[in-house]
Amino acid sequence: MSGEPALRDYYGEESFPLQSRDCQQSSLLVRYVKRTANNGVYSYAGEKDPYDDPVFLAYNFFSLQADRVVYNPKRQTVEASGNVVVIKESGATEHGDSITLKIDNGQAIPLP
Asked: Torsion over CA of 18, 22, 25 and 29, rounded to 10 degrees?
């Protein structure tokens, strides 16, 4: 029907198992609209129009939303860019244009 937004091309969710030094098993959850993979590095994108559906990432007591997220499992790094919203364990929320995180021993540590 005319006037209705087109359906999204793709929608998915992935989970990457991670283990901390104290042998606690956890996972990194990524929900996205578009995904590409190149040499073991995963790039995710959300969609602005006609929906406002960013990439969502959750890890332990930490989550973020962004327009784009790149996850490198070998280096255990996450690079998020474009309207980044970070929600920490304490419930504090941070907003920005980009953030790079290192997933290490059960924590998501911001890198400079």
From this structure: -40
Q: Is residue 13 packed enough to be buried (19+ CB in 10 Å), middle (13-18) or exposed (0-12)?
A: exposed
Contact residues for 3 (Cβ-Cβ < 8 A; gap 6+)? none
Residue 80: closest CA among 34, 27, 44: 44
DSSP state of 22: T
pLDDT digits (tens, 9 = 90+) for 36-51: 999 999 999 998 877 7
Domain presence at residue 30: yes
Q: Which domain holds residue 76?
A: 12-110
Let me know if residue 81 belongs to a domain: yes
Instruction: Indicate the helix (H) or strand (E) that contains 11.
Output: none
Q: Is the peptide bond before 110 cis (omega within 30 degrees of 0)?
A: no
pTM (2 decimals)?
0.84
Burial (Cβ within 10 Å: 0-12, 13-18, ≥19) of residue 14? middle
